[in-house]
Amino acid sequence: MNSKVKECLKDGAVGAGIGCAVIVPGISGGTIALVTGAFKKIVTAVDKLFSKLFWKNLAILIPFGIGAVLAIAALYFPITLAFEHCMLAIVCLFAGFMVGSVPSVTDKIKDKKPNCTEIAFCLAGFILVVLFGVLSLLFNLNSAVLETFNNNPWYLYPILLFVGIISSTGLIVPGFSGSMLLMVIGFYDKILNLVKQIPSQPGWSILRLFTFAVGVLLGFVLFSKLMKKLFEKHPRIANFVVLGFLVGSIIAIYVNDQMFDYLKSSLGTLDYVLSPIFLIVGFVISYLIVRYERKHQESELPNA
């Protein structure tokens, strides 16, 4: 097997990991890319995609894309089923992923004492994510989103485009889960259900999925460029923001309208039994990834 084929297979495997991050709340695609050494390769290819080297950079990204699509297809039905029948347990698994990945960020900022600016950016990231969850409770966002999907107004499509853009952060921002954000604002299960609705409502379902996918692609390009420049010019501030996002996500994944609705109406024996187990399993898996990163990864942040 020649080196190019091996490299494509490796990139496809990394893409599969990123695909898992797309559909599994709590896992960050950016962290997967960073740990496996693909972060710089991906953001550089995206940054130079719209240039004279378009086809060369597109070829670099294709194996990652194929791996991601295959992973999403493989996990779709298991995640959907688990989310319907033991949501609290699955959320605990996701929370474990996030808690275990905190050291992956703190390792990058522990070399010196943080200053006031860095602390302020960390707090801003934390407050922003927690605010999503609190606002979803205050405005009963889960019910509002469900009603909007059922009524299908014209403004649903601009909203889906915007939601796709912001959810793409999880693909490239280390420590941040875009699918977790979707869950907090009430869009996660609605978008998952669109696939199941294709046989009965093909027109609306495909159009909604397409609109969301366009948003994800636009956001991926935008945030890849942003991350490249941010980590080049202000790496410590970038990592403090990521830390704020990550810690805030641990709270927001529990404090949101969708979770409260589930706790009031659907909590079952399976949740009580599996929740503590899944929390520990998620933490262990995530922390093992961090340990791998510590041992094997050289700096993969983009350099000028």
List the helices and strands and how they pair.
Blueprint: H1 3-23, H2 29-35, H3 39-47, H4 54-85, H5 87-106, H6 116-138, H7 141-151, H8 156-167, H9 169-172, H10 178-184, H11 188-197, H12 202-233, H13 235-252, H14 257-265, H15 269-296
Helix pairs in contact: 1-2, 1-4, 3-4, 3-12, 5-13, 5-15, 6-13, 8-12, 11-12, 12-13
Structure description:
The protein has one domain. The chain has helices at 3-23, 29-35, 39-47, 54-85, 87-106, 116-138, 141-151, 156-167, 169-172, 178-184, 188-197, 202-233, 235-252, 257-265, 269-296. The longest helix is centred in the N-terminal third of the chain and has 32 residues, at 54-85. The protein is globular. The protein is built from 15 helices and no strands. It is mainly alpha-helical.
